[in-house]
Every structure is written in structure tokens, then in C-alpha cells.
Amino acid sequence: GDSVTQMEGPVTLSEEAFLTINCTYTATGYPSLFWYVQYPGEGLQLLLKATKADDKGSNKGFEATYRKETTSFHLEKGSVQVSDSAVYFCALSPTGAQKLVFGQGTRLTINP
Amino acid sequence: NAGVTQTPKFRVLKTGQSMTLLCAQDMNHEYMYWYRQDPGMGLRLIHYSVGEGTTAKGEVPDGYNVSRLKKQNFLLGLESAAPSQTSVYFCAISTGLKTEAFFGQGTRLTVV
After folding, report:
1. Average pLDDT, stretch B38-58?
2. What single DSSP character describes residue A48?
3. Chain B residue closest to A49 (CA)?
4. Quick one: how far is CA A16 from the chain centroid?
5. CB contact, 8 Å: B33 with chain A?
6. β pairing state of A11-14 and A106-111
7. Burial of A14 per CB tally in 10 Å (0-12, 13-18, 19+)
């Protein structure tokens, strides 16, 4: 079945460090791919998305590229800030399905 | 504009008690979802609805029932709560396939 695997956390970085959170997926057809972010005590918010192969989603300095050949959608940011501390979820929407499938989440902590 | 509102935000139940969680939206989206979030497991789909009067089972439906009598409301019921249902419950809405989902703030439920 459809599934998403994220790199295990927690991840702790210093401010201004480079961030990569790995995400790989298993799905048939051409799913849409998403990164959601959850700040403490809040619901999930869409961070970025990509709907077809080679698309690059970007928002707030974060980027992720839809790589069909490696079934990956890794999240990157060149210089993280303390305010980026949150839990990040990779997700996919399978072809023809009315739902989202989530990875387990990666907790990111940025120290000043 | 509240978007997605969940009621209540916190609840403690005794084993065997029943309760209903309410999700209300003011965005006129067709699709509504109930997820549960457990540590290390990401979000798992309980039930969902693709329109008023329709419901369908998700990944973990056992022990839950749902109803969508009005387009703007999606109710999640626990008939006989069990400690295994201790979790954070999120409602989400979307306009359809492969589109962004908007989430409520969550309901933290503890069953003792």
C-alpha cells in the first residue's frame, strides 16, 4: 500500500545551520507530495507541495523537489532559525484517493 | 474566519464512557477527515467524508463512528472509550483530490 518514511528524529541544529529532512515514499501512479509543519499546541499547516515529477515546492525559505526516480521529497533550508522549531510531516495524496498518508513526523529543535 | 473548529479541546474520559467530538468548518469544503496522532506514528486516518450524508472508513476505524448530516459538520463518536483511544484527534478539510488540507487545532483525549 501507499506509505511515507521520514528520517527519524529528533533533529537538533544551531541557528543558521543547513537543514535536510529526508522523505521517501511508496505509491502507485503519480501522487501529490506535501510537507506540513506543526508548531507546539497547534494543528498542521501546509508548508509546501508538489504535484508532479521534478516540481519544486518552496515556502518561507524551505524547498523540496519531487524526485520520481528516487521516490523522494526531501525538505531543505539553507539557514534555519529558532522559529523553525516544530514537527515536520511528509505526506502524499495517492492517485485517485481522497486522503492523505503521513510519515511519522520529525521533531526539529533549533538552538540559538 | 475560523476555518476549522474542533470542540472540545481537551477531555478526560473513564473507560466505557461515550463522547462525541465535533468538527465545524466555514470554508464550504466537500471533504472532511478525522485523524488521530500518536507519538512516533504520524497521523492515521480514522474516517472521512466526501460530501454531506456520506462517510467512509479510513486506516483505523474500529471503535469509532462518524456522521455528516450537514455539510459543515463532521462528528466523531466513541461509544465505549478504551485507554487505547487516548490520543490527539485532528479534523481536516479539503476541496478534493490532491489538494491542500486545512486542519483544526486538535482535541486531546485521555481515557483512564
Report:
1. 92
2. E
3. B100
4. 19
5. yes
6. parallel
7. exposed
